[in-house]
Design brief:
The chain is mainly alpha-helical and 279 residues long. The chain is built from twelve helices and no strands. Helices cover 79% and strands 0% of the residues. Helix 3 crosses helix 10, helix 5 packs antiparallel against helix 11 and helix 6 packs across helix 11. The radius of gyration is 19 Å and the shape is globular.
């Protein structure tokens, strides 16, 4: 049941531009298990299939249910929701640094974190709508959808890179939402297949890097996660600030944002503590 619930949280977060499903997975303490289950699937096919099945079930439920609630909350109270996720990110950084296998912070750590940060911030400058199509109509659209699926897979695997943001960059965000609501099976099937191909191609090298170079890999991932904060600010927080906000708006909003941040911060610290005890 725990795996399903964590999958539900990861799946629901994936629909929010600026929030990374990979980040949520790693903060919930399930990321390493996911990578291992995919990259070493044949070593324990039955156990890995059961684990991945539970996680995918939870993720599907999250995408199909909680994502709509989160999107509604983003429309009604965007700033508290955004600051809640900021609290989650900040609260998860200490647990993430433990994965680097280094007890003391070094200059090299800062350099690798900076590298990850630059990559994610750079992605934010990619022009949106690089590809533009609404359905699978010809061979070129099929190829574009296959490429997009692989890009989405990379965004799914790498923490700090928002899947929804990459869909926006590729000009597929609205088309994908439409395909889900209208049950466009050919479009969704091709996207799922290409995403699975991308996941298979990506997880093995990432698992190898985590095993051979844990310090460097996790420091870069920390940079990815920190970099995702910029997308939350530019994509959610800044657009939600009205040009003519009065004093009452600022007071109530700041109080709500602080409370949401604290809730996210201590919430993820509690989840990390529970996950560690479970291990």
């Amino acid at each position: 049941m725990e795996v399903i619930l964590k999958g539900l949280v990861v799946g629901s977060s994936m629909s929010i531009p600026g929030v990374s499903g990979g980040t949520m997975a790693i903060l919930l303490g399930i990321y390493n298990r996911l990578i291992s289950a995919i990259s070493n699937f044949t070593k324990d096919a039955k156990g890995n299939l059961l684990f991945l099945g539970k996680f995918c079930l939870g993720a599907a439920l999250g995408i199909g249910t909680l994502s709509f609630a989160l999107k509604w909350l983003l429309e009604v109270v965007p700033l508290p929701v955004a600051f809640f996720f900021l609290g989650v990110v900040v609260g998860g950084l200490p647990a993430l640094y433990k994965e680097t296998k280094q007890s003391r912070f070094r200059v090299s750590s800062a350099l690798f974190i900076l590298l990850g940060l630059v990559v994610v911030v750079g992605i934010g400058f990619i022009p949106t709508g690089m590809l533009s199509f609404s359905s699978i109509t010809d061979f070129q659209s099929v190829i574009m959808c296959l490429v997009a699926g692989i890009v989405i897979a990379i965004a799914l695997i790498l923490p700090g890179i928002s899947t929804s943001h990459m869909l926006i960059v590729l000009g597929m965000y609205q088309a994908t939402l439409t395909a889900i609501t209208e049950f466009d099976i050919p479009f969704l099937a091709l996207l799922v297949v290409s995403t699975l191909i991308g996941i298979v191609l990506t997880t093995k090298p990432l698992a190898w890097l985590m095993e051979r170079f844990p310090h460097q890999t996790y420091c870069i991932i920390m940079g990815f996660v920190i970099g995702s904060v910029t997308e939350i600010f530019t994509g959610i927080i800044l657009p939600a600030v009205p040009a003519s906000a009065d004093v009452l708006w600022w007071v109530t909003t700041v109080i709500a944002a602080v409370l949401a941040f604290v809730l996210g911060l201590f919430g993820i610290l509690w989840v990390a503590r529970v996950s560690n005890h479970g291990e």
